[in-house]
Structures are given as C-alpha cells and as structure tokens.
Design goal:
It is built from 4 helices and 8 strands. A hairpin with a 5-residue loop joins strand 5 and strand 6.
Length: 215
C-alpha cells in the first residue's frame, strides 16, 4: 500500500476600528482584530501499483467539490449564537446608558446600531468566505474520497434496507443479496436472480451506496 497525507489551513483576518464614547457614562469600544481559520487533513491510499492512477484521477478536473449543507448550516448557527451574545451584552450597556442619560439615549442608540450593522456585515462576509473554503475542503475528504477508495480496491459499498448494515463487497457483480445473519452474501449480474427459495435462509437485496454509506 502507498498513501499521501496532505493538510490545508485557510485563515481570514478582519479588523474593526472601534470608537470612543460620545456621552458620559458610555463605555469606549476599543479596536480589535479577529482571525478565523479552518484546517483540513486529506489522506489518500491505494495499492502501490494503482496509486499513481488514483492520484491522477483525484487531481483531475472531473473531481468537482460540493458543499455540505448540514455542516454549513451548523457553522452559521454557531456564529449566529455568538453574535446574539454580543448583541445582548451591547443591549445591557445601552440599558445602563439610558438610565444614566435619557437625553442622550436616542443619539447613542443610533450610533450603536450603525456600529452593529457594520460589525455584523463584516463578520458575515468573513464567515461566508470561511464557509465556502471549509465546505470545499470538507467535501474533498468525504463522499468523493470514499468512492475513489472503493474504485481503487475494486469494491463497492452496499446497505441492507431493513437493518441499515453497511458492507464492502466485490464490484464485479451488479446485484448483491445478504442472508439474515448479515455475514453471507450472494452476488450476480442477473437482475431477476433471487436466492430466496433456491438457497437456504432468508435473503435481502442490498442497495448500492457511496463508499461512506451515504445515499
């Protein structure tokens, strides 16, 4: 066997100017720098004789990247929660300011709202950039990688529609049946072939899935 281990680190840095308080009792907001980084690891392996062809296929144009919506939504949800905490803290500061100086409230609130909108817009741009890159990197280590591993080893992945059990079988046949024990398989290229009644036990036709078990 021969393998290749590669890593990718992608960072985005955002700078926020901050501002000085314009009314007595209102806190200053110092400038800050926020750096967001994503990292990914890719491992590709195959029998040494097949390794060059696997790497060539992996690096070809046909290997298009796809985002993972569930992962992306979870990332955005986490950032939204963090933003909500920041807004809550700012709202608490605003409440204290209203008690200290009612006359300055409307003006101060308008300034804070403008700062919040700029902050959220900048953070969202940075999050979108990181999300796009992270989705590409994550996908390169997910479904496509598992499919090429199956291909390079002349195998395919099947799942039992009743139990959800995932098995690795030879790719030389188009149809796979597995008995109730989940350990014995029957393969054929005849779509009409059915071992039930012909062989001992109860057999279930398997569903071909991606190498990682996904549909």
């Amino acid at each position: 066997m021969k393998g290749q281990l590669s890593t990718v680190v992608d960072c985005t840095q955002m700078q926020y100017a901050g501002f000085k308080a314009i009314a007595k009792g209102m806190a200053d907001f110092p400038g800050s720098t926020v750096t967001q980084c994503t990292a990914a690891v890719r491992y590709v392996s195959a029998p040494e004789s097949q390794y060059p062809s696997v790497i060539k296929l992996w690096d070809s144009r046909e290997m298009q990247e796809r985002g993972l919506p569930d992962w992306s939504q979870a990332w955005i949800a986490r950032n939204n929660r963090q933003t909500a905490v920041t807004l809550q803290q700012m709202s608490a500061a605003a409440a204290a300011q209203r008690q200290a100086s009612a006359q300055q409230f409307n003006h101060d609130q308008a300034v804070r709202q403008h700062m919040h909108e700029e902050f959220l817009a900048t953070m969202q741009r940075g999050t979108d950039m990181s999300m796009n890159r992270a989705a590409q990197v994550a996908n390169s280590n997910h479904t496509i990688a598992s499919d090429w591993v199956d291909y390079s080893l002349d195998q395919q992945t099947v799942r039992d529609p009743n139990t959800g059990q995932v098995s690795k079988v030879s790719s030389s046949s188009s149809y796979t049946w597995i008995d109730a024990s989940g350990k014995t398989s029957f393969q054929t290229n005849d779509v009409n072939a059915n071992p039930n009644g012909a062989l001992q036990g109860s057999w279930t036709r398997q569903t071909v899935v991606h190498g990682d078990g996904s549909n």
